[in-house]
Amino acid sequence: MFEIGKIPPQILERLVLNPVTHTKVHRADIVVRPKTGEDCSAMDPGGEMCVFSTDPITGATRDVGYLAVHVNCNDVFSAGAEPVGILMTVLLPPQSEESILEELMAGTLQAAAELGIEVLGGHTEVTDAVTKPVISATVIGKTKDRKMVCTGGAEIGQDVIMTKWAGLEGTAILAQEYETVLSQRIPKDLLQKAKEMKGFLSVGTESRIAMEHGATAMHDATEGGILGAVWELAECSEKGVTVYADQIPIQDVTKMVCQEAQIEPLQLISSGTMVIAAYDGAALVDKLQAAGVAAAVIGKITQKEKIIIQNGTSKPLEQPKSDALYQAKF
Question: Assign residue 89 a region: left if phi > 0, alpha if psi is -120 to 50, beta otherwise?
Answer without folding.
Answer: beta
